[in-house]
Amino acid sequence: MAKETKALPIETRFKLPAPLPSWPSGGGFAKGSIDLGGLEVYQLSTFSKIWATHEGGPDDLGATFLKPSQIPDGFFMLGCYCQPNNIPLFGWVLVGKGNGEDSSDAAGGTLSKPVDYTLIWSSESTKIKEDGHGYIWLPTPPQGYVAVGHIVTNSPDKPSLDEIRCVRSDLTEQCENETLIWGTNQKNNSSGINIYSSRPTTRETQALGVCVGTFLAQVDGTSSPSPLACLKNKDSNRSNMPNLTQIEALMQAYSPLIYFHPDESYLPSSVTWFFNNGALLYKQGDATPTPIDPTGSNLPQGGSNDGTYWLDLPVDKQAELKIKRGELQSSVCYLHVKPMLGATFTDIAIWVFYPFNGPARLKLQLVSLPLGTIGQHVGDWEHVTLRVSNFTGELCRVYMSQHSNGRWLDAAELEFEGGNKVVSYASLNGHALYSKAGLVLQGNSTLSIGIRNDTKKGKLSMDTGATFEVVAAEYLGSIVEPPWLGYLRKWGPTTNNTPKLFGFLPREVFGEDGPTAPKVKRSWDGDEV
Q: What order of strands is seen across the sheet that includes strand 367-370?
């Protein structure tokens, strides 16, 4: 009797738990396609399978290569799609159509057929578990054009030149590897290959590079620049970005739920509550601190984070204890809404303020030890970022900040509650955000030594969509930023709690510097990580 094969996650298609709402009208947001300046693109998430491997990649489950299907009339494939097999099928590629006289395949038009293909890799010489054989081809573009995706076949025969289109070079920008999707183990002298997702090399709020959704194939570990490119929003307009009413609707649809550990003592608050309850402004060389106006209007604006000013807790011990604990009921989420990837996506960065970051705990294999004041600091800014497609309004990815770093997760990797609301867990005392409850070790996980990040679903939680303020959305031109947002100095004093004994642990857990303001974070005008 044949052994029953267990179905792979990718054999199911991921869908958000609840249908997308009807977004409020206005502008070009969620209209289905976007004009990049002579090139109209449509985000397509329907695919047909071409070839699959069954080993390597995440969880050693292999990867599947697919081509876009059900392409709308007048649009053309720009490249194939690849995804690891350890999560349900979730992803997209852009298909393109030339506009007006500048149409496809016309002389000098937006799109053009390749003139040939180069076979860059075949699975024929590999000894991997696979469905038949796979062949990866690089389109040869005509002069003045660039390929933005590979084509994959399950036959050694060259694909038809009608299968794919190249893009005029002025509508493209340089791209780079992002995440490793799959690779061969290069045994038996076979030709090795690594498959990566791709992204524009330059990713800032004003950058024009556009993700195509296709993959990059790197053969034999070569590190030379990819022959592929990404697209470019040549018009650099922001007409596809959501208006204020649409931002509010997106928050109601996707606003993350933050669960706190049952033992959490240091909860969030609003910035106003922090100021009203005795937070003080200190200036270097001045022994007398200054109480802070509820809006932060007397905080120094601009300048550099040079240590001249910092915030601290009240001198009175009872007031200090109160402010350390925060007040969940007063808490407000502060939204920074910005265009990303050539304004084809909207990033909603949801900032949460904690008056105090609690002490760290050390794990030494089977033993956990409190570290006294190590890890404590005044003021703690954490954030979670929703990346929403401007084509459809669908949630695609979520970034969860974790101390000085963080992690992007595809929607297919997330937990949801109450429809499409993202679930996240704040670590005990440190407030780093994770997508699953449990323990994450910050240090040497191989030796099981490091700082504990414990998460657990306690009774207390925060619905980030319940009370929020849009404090910055530069592209709208109508948002008045609160004065405290322009305070670019430290939100806590500088301390030095670092014992030499623990020098192998990450620096940020020691609270050596007061945390910086949201606007000073590297992600404010750019991409996360």
A: 367-370, 361-364, 449-455, 438-444
Residues with Cβ within 8 Å of residue 329, at least 6 apart in sequence? none
The residues of the chain scoring below 70 in pLDDT are 1-5, 100-107, 185-191, 221-224, 360-375, 441-449, 495-514
User: Are the beta carbons of 217 and 193 closer than 8 angstroms?
Assistant: yes
Instruction: Name the DSSP class of 393.
Output: -
Which amino acid appears at position 161 of this protein? L
The model's pTM: 0.92
520 — phi, psi (to 5°)?
Answer: -85, -15
DSSP-derived letter for residue 418 is T
The pLDDT tens digits of the residues spanning 268-288 come to: 999 999 999 999 999 999 989
Say how many residues make up the chain.
529
C-alpha dist (Å) from residue 455 to 158, 262, 286, 378, 417: 52, 9, 41, 21, 17
What CA–CA distance (Å, rounded) separates 466 from 328? 12
Tokens 């700082």 found at:
451
Q: Shortest CA distance to 458 belongs to which of 328, 370, 322?
A: 328
CA distance 177 to 230: 11
List, for residues 313-346, the tens digit of each pLDDT value.
999 999 999 999 999 999 999 999 999 999 999 9
Residue ranges covered by each domain of the chain: 32-232, 244-254+267-420+460-520
376: which 2 tokens? 């404590």
Angle at 238 between CA 34 and CA 226, to 5 degrees: 65
Torsion of CA 175, 180, 184, 186, to 10 degrees: 80
pLDDT of residue 4: 47
Secondary element (H or E) of residue 254: helix 244-254
Round to whole Å and give the CA distance between 390 and 36.
13
State phi, psi for 412 to the nearest 5 degrees: -70, -15
